Amino acid sequence: MFLSCVMPLVSVSVQAQAPIQFRSAFDDSPLNVQPKPGEAFSDAVKEFHTKGRNRYRDDANALTQGKALYNSWCQGCHLPDGSGRIGPSLIGDSFTYDRVSSDVGMFEVIYGGAAGAMQPFSKRISQDEILKIIAYVRSLKK
Amino acid sequence: MLRLISAFVASIGLALALPVASQTIPKSPDQVARPGGTLPGNPKIALVKIADGFNDPIGVASAFDGTGRLFVVERVGRIKVVNKDGSVVPEPFLDLTKINPLGTEVQTVFVEQGLWAIAFHPKFKSNGYAFVSFASVPFNGANLIVRFTVDPASPNQVTTEQFNKTAKVILNIPQPYYNHYGGKIVFGPDGYLYVGKGDGGWEGDPLDAGQTLTVLWGKMLRVNVDTKEENPAYTIPHDNPFLAASKDRMMSLFGITEEGFSKIKIGARPEIWAYGLRNPWQFSFDPKTGDLWIGDVGQNHWEEIDWQPRSSKGGENYGWKHNQASHCHPTLGPNDVCPIVGTLPVAEYPHQEPYPGAAKLKDGWGCSVTGLGVANYAGMDGVFIAGDWCSGRVWGVGWDKSAKKWQMQELLHTALQFTGGNNDQDGSILAVNCYCFYTDDKGATSNPPGALWRVVGASDVPAGAETAKTRVR
């Protein structure tokens, strides 16, 4: 009786710790999200890797930083309000890649790149910065 | 009798040997090819990487001198040599950032400014002449085309001294705005230098440059650089279409038809070969037939690919800014009505929104056509290959003899941001890509490095070669 109480608890906790498999929006190949040399993962990134949840979504501080990052890296193609010109709109109901409706999907596009001018920003900024950008983009819709 | 028969057979043979140009230029928009077609033979291609590590490469050219070297143009103002074995010579072939002690010669402040192209003289092996086209700092962003001489004792490096000693300015074309320069220069099969000129910029051609024959913007130019004298630096080919049109003549009010009067174009620049172009950033001659293909970058909704046969006498009006590809400019909605001005393109493809408010396309779109070259291999016959700078798609456009129409096929969807291309001496097509921005660019040496690729048949990829990744449906 003791064992049958313990076993289900053990199996549930193993499932909760499995990290998310990030995949390229371009060809679904697995994305390597290991830290770059010298990059230490923030708690937000660690939580995102395991739960897919972006804790910066409601974080005013992070949104301010996200805005500055967006204006530096994204607005040239997606415009300051996210409505898009060279790059597609980020605030509409449909996206070029369906997965972008989730933060994991938007991360896959930004981090791993998509096609053409949507280059992989893993070469340029940290994963923590990408999460802040995503949080800011989501706030544009309101 | 035998002589008659052999003469008859010979004349048949002569007739068969002459290429029959069956291509026709579209007379109405429905004859213009769009994505979704299939080229004869349904060719399959791949992009094989030759070399990488370049700073914002935006052009590439062969010297056609048998060495197999390729010259990759970096926007900042440098040219790198890639050997036949794919190794990159560390020292630049040419460094225009260093030839002037007061600072770089090349304006790069905006992403469309920089060193755009190199073209080697058809007789480069004997005369050592090479030509570069770039935006000039001292001339406030003007487009300079400069000839210099490569010292045969230093084939892989043109020193500052050598450049300054031998530099000859062929053209100095002022530029009103910082975009739409054109940039590529190519020697045509006729030995003349062809220069693609954008409409001088901003957007929508507010200067109406495309249609204005008194300016060089918005044009394809054709000049002769093999002058007998040192000056002038170039002369007008005797058969340029507007040379006769612009000549001074005795006045006559009568005795000339309306058609005759329409051929008088006082003030037309005789350098003009074709007009009505927005930004013919990359263009190519078919190495086999000499036909000319132009990838003309479009405004907000359509990209345009123009074609003219080798036999063209020039003077074509490609319609900008009244038309954008086969559509109205400005495009207002799905049912625009407007006249078609001049010559239609043979192919076009839409942006993600084909007209304001249109449902966004999921496939088959792009935003900036980068012509690469013309393929007569890998199962293709006279197929123009073009990449798209924003979507990474690679298109093939060619004439379908049996269907008697132009076909446009999406050959690949790559992740690459195509910036330029050219035909190699062996006829294969080369392409370069960057990881760069359009506005808010970080600088011509601040981006992750770009690469040089070769278009090959999909079944001809060498074992172990790195190929551009593609999306497969």
Question: What does this protein look like?
Answer:
The complex is a heterodimer of chains A (142) and B (473). Chain A is an all-alpha fold and 142 residues long. Chain A is built from six helices and no strands. Chain A has helices at residues 2-16, 43-51, 60-73, 75-78, 103-112, 127-140. In chain A, α5 crosses α6. The longest helix of chain A has 15 residues, at 2-16. The model of chain A is unreliable at 1-15 (pLDDT under 50). By secondary structure, chain B is mostly beta strands. A four-stranded antiparallel beta sheet of chain B has the order 1-26-25-24, with no helix packed on it. A four-stranded antiparallel beta sheet of chain B has the order 2-3-4-5, with no helix packed on it. In chain B, β14 (282-285) and β15 (292-296) form a beta hairpin. The longest helix of chain B has 16 residues, at 2-17. Chains A and B meet through α4 of A and loops of B.
Distance between the termini of chain A: 53 Å
End-to-end span of chain B in angstroms?
64 Å
Largest sheet: number of strands, sense, barrel closure of chain A: none
Helix content of chain A: 40-55%
Please state the oligomeric state of the protein chains shown: heterodimer
* Rg value of chain B: 22 Å
Show the largest interface: A-B, 23 and 28 residues
Q: What would you report as the Rg of chain A, rounded to the nearest angstrom? A: 17 Å
Would you tell me the structural class of the helices and strands of chain B? mainly beta
Strand content bin of chain B: 25-35%
Largest sheet of chain B: 4 strands, antiparallel
SSE pattern of chain B, N- to C-terminal? HEEEEEEHEEHEEEEHEEEEEEEEEEEEEE
- In the predicted model, the low-confidence regions of chain B spanning at least 5 consecutive residues are none
- Mean pLDDT across the residues of chain A is 88
| Proportion of residues in extended strands of chain A | under 5%
Order of helices and strands of chain A: HHHHHH
Tally of strands of chain A: 0
Mean pLDDT of chain B, as a whole number?
Answer: 95
Strand order, biggest sheet of chain B?
Answer: 1-26-25-24
Q: What's the number of extended β-strand segments of chain B?
A: 26
